[in-house]
Design brief:
The protein has 338 residues and is an alpha/beta fold. It has three domains: 49 residues, no CATH class; 194 residues, von Willebrand factor, type A domain (Rossmann fold, 3-Layer(aba) Sandwich); 54 residues, no CATH class. Helices cover 38% and strands 21% of the residues. It has nine helices and 13 strands. The radius of gyration is 26 Å and the shape is flat. About 6% of the residues have low confidence. InterPro entries: VWF_A, vWFA_dom_sf. This is VWFA domain-containing protein. It holds the Pfam family VWA_2.
């Protein structure tokens, strides 16, 4: 409910009181007042001083919502699909593989394969008197675990709530689940989240559950431009952009003014957006588009956009969005994106 009310605790509790009156969630021994007190005592909501004691959600609540989203969206997938993402290359990592090589200056002591080293010493010097030299030492190779930098773009234009279909809530849930997944399983990865409407701007993880759609057009160009600026500052070699949207680009900003056209595919807007996709390709930043729409002309645009970037596209319903994002993230993390 906090997600539906964009983090407004007072409005949420008002709704819950109305639902309690209708469906009788509570009983005389435990009322809504007791529930509110429990929320405060357990650190889920707090009264902010100087705000008229208006209750606010805490960081504990935000983390709880993210964990719930992770369990809801990704819980049904196979457990062994989540792991430490390895590449086919050897290097610094946490796990040894089956390969070995001669010791080199700079190798750590814990990487020495003592069994193989002693065996080499016996072969090289005999077994009558034990001798162990540098050239006898054998080192076990480690699996190289790559790290990845991802920017997740979320469309918050007005179309995300048009026609009686709530598309922003599933998008937020996917973003929260992905953030929690990375935090738990891949702590060396980075995830930046940005939203785009008429403009684009980054959002903090704590604000993610309470995002709301605005009266915006869709400035995909601005979103991609900001995503590229963020990824340029990341030191990892593996970089990617995930974009969740339900429509076509309808807006760009030129000389401080907005150029907008919601009717069909505007050539001026599309050209600038395609140019940005091509620029991402030159920088070897693939874009994966998750399109929550099945209109043929929109799919045609996405196909051309994907071809320009050499990225990928998925046409997903709201129910399958989480599966697509999760599986593609895992797949991309199993290889170096270069």
């Amino acid at each position: 409910m906090l997600q539906l009310t964009n983090g407004d605790v007072s409005e949420t509790l008002t709704w819950m009181n109305e639902l309690d009156q209708q469906y009788k969630f509570t009983d005389p021994s435990y009322g809504m007042g007791d529930f509110i007190n429990d929320l405060k005592e357990n650190g889920f909501i707090t009264d902010v001083p100087g705000s008229g004691n208006i209750p606010q959600p805490t960081s504990k609540t935000e983390q709880s919502i993210r964990k719930s989203a992770l369990e809801e969206i990704f819980g049904k997938l196979k457990k062994n699909s989540v792991g430490n993402h390895k590449t086919t290359k050897s290097g610094l990592g946490d796990e040894f593989n089956s390969e070995s090589r001669p010791f080199q200056f700079g190798d750590t002591l814990d990487s020495i394969d003592m069994t193989s080293s002693i065996h080499n010493a016996q072969i090289n010097h005999g077994i009558d008197e034990f001798k162990l030299y540098d050239e006898d030492l054998s080192v076990r190779e480690r699996e190289h675990k790559s790290s990845s930098s991802t920017v997740l773009m979320i469309d918050i234009s007005h179309s995300m709530i048009l026609y009686g279909e709530d598309r922003i809530t599933p998008a937020k849930k996917v973003a929260m689940a992905l953030a929690e997944l990375i935090k738990i399983k891949y702590p060396k990865d980075t995830l930046d989240i940005i939203v785009f409407g008429d403009d684009a701007w980054p959002v903090e993880l704590r604000d993610l559950p309470f995002l709301q759609v605005g009266p915006y057009h869709t400035n995909t160009y601005a979103g991609l431009e900001l995503a590229m600026d963020i990824l340029r500052r990341r030191k990892t070699s593996n970089k990617q952009i995930f974009m969740i949207t339900d429509g076509k680009p309808t807006c760009i900003k030129e000389h401080g003014r907005y150029y907008k056209n919601s009717f069909g595919l505007d050539r001026k807007v599309i050209t600038k957006t395609m140019n940005m996709a091509a620029q991402c390709r030159r920088l070897k930043i693939p874009i994966t588009t998750f399109m929550i729409a099945r209109d043929p002309y929109l799919q045609q645009f996405v196909r051309e956009f994907t071809q320009t970037n050499n990225g990928k596209a998925f046409y997903s319903g709201l129910d399958g969005l989480g599966d697509f994002v999760f599986e593609d993230y895992i797949k991309n993390r199993k290889k170096n994106i270069r």
